[in-house]
Amino acid sequence: MTSYRSRHSADCSTRVTLGFLLILPLVLFVIGRIAVGIGFTQDVGGRLKRAADANSIALAETELQAALEGMASRGCTAGRSHIIWYTPACDVGFWHGNIEDAAAELKAFPEDADALTISNQLMKLRETLLDDGTTVSVTLPPNIAIFPSQAAWGGSALCLILLAILGGGIAVVALDARP
Q1: Which residue spans within the chain are E strands per DSSP?
Q2: Which residues does 143 contact at the CB level (< 8 Å), separation at least 6?
Q3: Could you tell me which of 55, 38, 36 has the C-alpha nearest to residue 46?
């Protein structure tokens, strides 16, 4: 016959394990969200930054085309990136159209243009693609990396946070009740 102390200790260990298992999905979710963000940066955001930093029209055009292909493959061509409210900053169609227009201007740019005209065109492109604030960053709608499934990501995050709080509570209570 097992003693109360050993049964209580085994029960506490089970509760601690359960608590940590309830926290694990949130950790995996965060890792997945980071991976999605990195993938977006590689396919779109990084390409836009490289286009803005390009020193020639041809290089800028190549990078913009790669970014547009990345946007198309991710479905980032129209819609809004906020879940609850609409603001002009979350208009994916405007953002995509602006980048398409910039790419069309580069494609139609005359090859025999003088250095000043080329420089002006590259500065215009840079102003289109980058935001100047306390730091310079690529102009992107909020939550664009998880677009068009930002509602699913947000709902999942909320549920997993609640589950992790429950799991943390279970683990803390079980650890506190250990003999």
Answers
A1: 130-132, 136-138
A2: 81, 82, 83, 90, 150, 153
A3: 38
Distance CA 44, CA 61 (A): 14
Q: Report pLDDT for 67.
A: 96
End-to-end CA distance of the chain: 19
Report the candidate in 168, 146, 150 with the shortest Cα–Cα distance to residue 158: 150
Name the amino acid, one letter, at 107.
K
Say which amino acid occupies 144. Answer: I
Which residues neighbour 63 within 8 Å (Cβ) at sequence distance 6 or greater? 47, 48, 50, 51, 54
Say what the pLDDT of residue 109 is: 93
Q: Indicate the pLDDT class of residue 137, thresholds 50, 70 and 90.
A: confident
Q: Please name which of 31, 23, 33 lies closest in space to residue 172, comparing C-alpha atoms.
A: 23
pLDDT digits (tens, 9 = 90+) for 4-30: 455 556 577 788 888 888 889 999 999
**Half-sphere exposure of residue 2, counting CA atoms within 13 Å on the CB side?**
8
CA–CA gap between residue 45 and residue 41 (Å, rounded): 4
Q: Name every residue whose Cβ is closer than 8 Å to that of residue 54 and which is 6 or more positions away in sequence.
A: 60, 63, 122, 125
Q: What are the sequence ranges of the domains in the chain?
A: 24-176
